[in-house]
Design goal:
Elements lengths: L15 H9 L5 E4 L6 H8 L9 E4 L4 H6 L2 H15 L4 E4 L2 H6 L3 H12 L3 E4 L7 H15 L11 E6 L3 H4 L4 H11 L2 E7 L5 H5 L6 E4 L5 H11 L3 E3 L5 H17 L3 E2 L9 E5 L1 H15 L4 E4 L6 H4 L8 H7 L5 E4 L12 E4 L3 H4 L14 H7 L4
Parallel strand pairs: 1-2, 1-3, 3-4, 5-6, 5-7, 7-8, 8-9, 10-11, 10-12, 12-13
Helix pairs in contact: 1-7, 4-6, 7-11, 12-13
Length: 384
């Protein structure tokens, strides 16, 4: 895999800074992107579909050239402390961008000073805008799991899960998070918390009550590892997608609850002619669901930041277009965001599947809820 990070044809995924903001958006905290004035609009215009429907304290520090050169962290601290005293958030999160990355801002140290002055939890994230949203969201969720989840025993009664890695960057705002809850509930599995769409901070703080973590995207992997270390909660990796794959997911959740073992569910066929491009867990889950529904081999390519479980899922990582193009040779069907169409071989049939974290709001109305009804998507695109 190359590390050129250049693109002649393709767009780029939302950055890790946006991933932090998206992960924490609904939880009553205050997130500060340390960057130049005006850069907040990039996030709220392209990466955050909830921006116009609900309030959230997401700010920009208005970093100036002089402050960047002279290293005036005191202004960032004072401005943040003043805003905390005015707005009373539950916590503070500081997210880095390319400029403070180049000047070496110590976000952990800045966060500690803010926490000492304000008396509420403060997190510093060394995001740099050079990685995908999955990296930033994973760091944010891991910090919540490490600092805010309370020590307590499993919830008695019905089998329960935490849904980890839920953000609009992967699932948009089409109701997928509610469908996931309902699919599990119909199988007798309760949802303790959904990180972080549709759950309060209080519910997330109670995550230790759950029997299993269901990691629905790679954004949830960081929290899953911390919850495993702190509370021994096992994880099942896989995104609800279609009736048959959901049955496999439910069985895996029950098995993990019984024996405490982690499971990685979506396994692709590396030689398949049907290809899904996107975030690793969701793309691999769709490929596995297509196999389950049709019996036809399918494979996935992870176009965001990689993670160790990709090897188990038989999913290659390719973040640059020069790496992606060779992996599409011989493909007969390619399922991906419409912006991938220019690099798909002419001999392959292209099936558009918009991804909010890649093309933003352009095709938001066309993003389907695949958590339960995969059949409609397959029929519409002649996949069965």
């Amino acid at each position: 895999m190359s590390v050129k990070q250049t693109a002649r044809i393709l767009s780029t995924y939302a950055g890790d800074t946006s991933g932090v903001c998206s992960a924490l958006f609904e939880l009553g905290g205050m997130t500060v992107m340390h960057d130049a004035s005006g850069c907040n609009s990039t996030y709220n215009t392209h990466d955050e579909p909830r921006w116009y429907d609900r309030d959230s304290l997401v700010f920009i520090s208005a970093l100036t050239e002089t402050e960047a050169i002279l290293g005036d962290d005191r202004k960032l601290i004072d401005d943040t402390v003043r805003a905390v005293r005015d707005l009373c958030p539950a916590f503070v999160a500081l997210a880095g961008t390319p400029i403070p990355m180049m000047t070496g801002v110590d976000f952990d140290a800045v966060a500690r000073e803010i926490e000492e002055e304000c008396g509420i939890p403060a997190f510093g994230f060394d995001t740099d805008g050079m990685h995908a949203y999955t990296s930033g969201a994973s760091k944010a969720f891991a910090a919540l799991a490490r600092r805010l989840v309370r020590e307590q025993g499993r919830q008695p009664g019905a089998l329960s899960v935490n849904l980890l890695g839920l953000t609009p960057l992967d699932f948009s705002v089409n109701g997928t998070e509610n469908t996931m809850r309902r699919v599990l509930e119909e199988s007798g599995i309760a949802t303790v918390s959904a990180w972080a769409m549709g759950s309060t901070l209080e519910e997330i703080m109670d995550a230790a009550k759950a029997h299993v973590n269901l990691v629905v995207s790679s954004s949830g992997l960081g929290a899953a590892k911390v919850l495993r270390e702190r509370f021994g909660i096992p994880s099942v990796i896989g995104t609800p997608c279609g009736r048959r794959f959901n049955e496999v997911l439910v069985d895996a959740i029950r098995q993990s609850a019984e024996n405490g073992e982690d499971r990685v569910l979506p396994v692709c066929d590396p030689a398949a002619k049907r290809v899904v491009i996107g975030e690793g867990v969701t793309a691999a889950s769709l490929a596995a669901a297509l196999i389950a529904e049709t019996g036809i081999p399918a494979r996935a390519i992870c176009a965001t930041d990689g993670f160790a479980e990709l090897r188990t899922m038989q999913v290659p990582q390719a973040t640059d277009e020069d790496d992606l193009i060779p992996l599409l040779e011989g493909a007969e069907v390619v399922i991906a965001d419409p912006l991938y169409r220019p690099i798909v071989p002419e001999s392959a049939r292209f099936v558009p599947l918009p991804h909010e974290g890649f093309s933003g709001r352009i095709w938001r109305r066309d993003i389907p809820d695949l958590a339960e009804d995969l059949t409609g998507f397959m029929k519409e695109n002649d996949l069965i």
